[in-house]
Amino acid sequence: MRTLDHVAFRAALLTGATLLPATAFAQTVPGDTPGTTQQPGTTDTNPAVTNESLDDVVVTGQTTRDRPLITASADITYADRGAIDRRAPRSTADLLELVPGIFVEGTAGQVSNNYSVRGLQGGGQRFVQLEEDGMPILYGGGGADFFFDQDLTIDRLEAVKGGSSGVLTVNGAGATINFISRRPNFNEPEGSARFTLYDYGLKRGEFYYSQPLADKLAFSVGGYVQSNPGVRKNPFDYAGWRLKGILEYRFDGGGSIRLSARGGDVENAYYATQPYRYDNGKPAEIPGLDTQFGNIGGDSFTNIAVPVSTFAHSSGFREFRGRDGIKARTAQVRLDIDKPITDTIELFARARYLKYSYDFNGIFPGSGTGNAGLTSAVNYITPGTNSPINDLLTLGTAAFPTLTRFGIKNLRTGVILGSDQVAELNALNGNGFLQRTTLNHDFVDGRDFGSNVGARWEFESGRIKNSLTVGAMYYNSKRAQDQSATASVVNDVRSNSDIYDIVALNAPNQEIGVLSDNGLVSYGDWGAGIRERLDSAVSLYANDEIAIGDLRIDGGIRWESIDGEFRDGQAAAVNQPVPAGTAGVVRTVGSTFNGQYAITKRTQDKIAWTVGANYLITPSLAIYARYANGFQTNNTDPITTIELYEAGVRYQYGRFFSGTATVFRTNFNDQNYNFANPTNPSQQQNLNADLRTEGVEIDAVVRPTSWFAVNFQGVFQKPKLKNLQLDGVDQGSAFEGNRPERTPAQLYSITPTLTLPNGFGELYGRYKFVGKIFADNGNGVALPSYGVTSVGVTLNLTDRLQLNVNAENVFDVIGLTEGNPRQGQTQAITDGYFYARGIVGATFGGQLTLRF
């Protein structure tokens, strides 16, 4: 990661520190030579080397051409290919850790991770817009990592937090993270191939190739194929591929037209919470379930038929397919045009159409019951308030009046244990626990069209330079969701856990009846689950940047009007019966979609605006300040506003030091989302609150010699809750001043890099510290701070062959990123046990990259 190298100020602002108008203006300046940049798949192994060789000029958060980072009035971060490879990302979320102030909860696997920025509560990713080449991957923001991940076709990452982000893109008031693709090579053929292998079973092959086809025509193509069981123990292996191609033609007199397409079909493992225990105030494993690599999911969840409303699925069943994990498919086509009209006026146009879907089969231990669902097998099958399935046992008593007791039947082995076999039950898997696990089958099918057209006019006279960009964006998206048939099973607590039927037994513990349905103890737990969202949004924007000598003043404004439609599938007044022949005593499918929709339509509009200034005190010292007022749309829900104040200083001292320090205050107003009722976690409530965060952010490089450098990135902040309401009821001082859920007050990383002699490579390390967080807004459970150490080495074996070997979490640290997301706002530890999501233990692997 580089911040402000002396000679990189211009390049880092030309390249990383500048992005284009409104998240969509990606261009090549006349006379540059795309395709002659650093070879794909190679790491810059000299920390003193600058980014001068990166000739593409892409501006994120700024609209002036050739504006150096030291003169920027926005909080901008730039990570080149070398920084990306040092991070050795296993997910898109891993890459976001290169941006100071972004808190990543990278515990779900390769996709579906949570991330937030500057004090926003955990899971606030919808305020962070992920882009590819200056256009949002999805209009709505959150969930984009299902449909994008980096490979050798990506050249670098650029990010801007707050400020101009909310003006120059849609739904990016918190931050914009822009992944910049390599441009086709117009000079000569070039390519690379990479093979990646990790100890947990990941096998991935990548490639990139580009060459000119004619004097003004060139193409590139690249992507990957992989097989990946996921980082936790898993009997399944998940396959996938992504492919991207670009065809570019250069106009006489400058500018270009670029046609690109990408597609993919990728399966991934998914991990939710799992049980932990407290041991002398520290998280520890439950006997029989490893904290670092344990995984509840497995063979028993391969395929489970769940009864459902026939209006949702005409067969009356919907299959939960744990074998598929998360299956995401994408198909996109895109057109980019840049054309200078005169020496001072340039036109641009961007348009892309994305067709996507994902089939999410997620296993959620503890959801709907919270910690109360984690208890002994004896409690489960003993009627009374201590049983998490007491309602089911009550039905069983009525259905089988001659029963003597209840028992459990292992669906894999057929072994039955009665409630009187206490010793055997308490010895189950070494812990004696059962748990209630929710099967969340969520299918989304969508399309997303986006366009951005506009012009830039540049004027210069004496000491005055001005750049004005104006444009219009249009987005039209549709998202259909099927989350019906969310049900729960009873399973044990171990990796590759077994599912159990609840059975009625006679005196000699022989089965006389079954209460559950192949382990299913409830249906329709999360409502009817059928809904659609349609959005049609128009934005008009303008951004002006003027320089008067060493003073630069920026101002931007965007007006957006959105027509939203929400089609909410309605639940029947009387639930449908289960299909004929369904086992068990639960006789309805639970919440039943009745085939009808409640339709809400709403047109809303809002203005985002920002103003900033930068003063260059000396060529090596600058100060800047900015105010921004941005917003987030959310279909027909009320628009949420974000207000940002920030001021910073940028300084460099030769090659020895370069860095930025920023103080900030963010006001996130009217944060609105659903959560679990504290007293009944199976019920959802609405939360509305204001968040206030003050903090300081640091991003600096110290380079005492030409062969050694240390990069420090960190944020130290004080996030607080204000004016919290539950279902519209003011909570007074009950939560006032609490820290928002899953938000650390301290978050930093230290990355030393040592260059080996004769350009042979580099050694690098990384220490990441995450401060204490709270599992929910009630601040009831504090998840401890933790630090993760990673190390790696890059070896240039030949001019064309490079080996990178790295290890993550080398000291096998236990780190928790959230508690049970369905537990509610007053989460507590029950009998020393609780649910949480944890990072994985020590893993290692590497990449072999060949350039040709």
UniProtKB/TrEMBL annotation:
N-terminal signal peptide: 1-26
PANTHER family documented for this protein: CATECHOLATE SIDEROPHORE RECEPTOR FIU, FERRICHROME IRON RECEPTOR-RELATED
Compositional bias segments (type: Low complexity): 29-45
GO cellular component, one term: cell outer membrane
UniProt keyword terms in alphabetical order: Cell outer membrane, Ion transport, Iron, Iron transport, Membrane, Receptor, Signal, TonB box, Transmembrane, Transmembrane beta strand, Transport
TonB-dependent receptor plug domain sequence ranges: 71-173
Chain residue ranges for the region called Disordered: 29-49
Family as reported in the entry's similarity comment: Belongs to the TonB-dependent receptor family.
Gene source species: Sphingomonas aerophila
Protein's UniProt name: Outer membrane receptor protein involved in Fe transport
Domain spans labelled TonB-dependent receptor-like beta-barrel: 414-810
PROSITE patterns: TONB_DEPENDENT_REC_3 (PS52016)
Bilayer topology annotation: Multi-pass membrane protein
Main localisation: membrane
Molecular function via GO: siderophore uptake transmembrane transporter activity
Cell compartments where the protein resides: Cell outer membrane
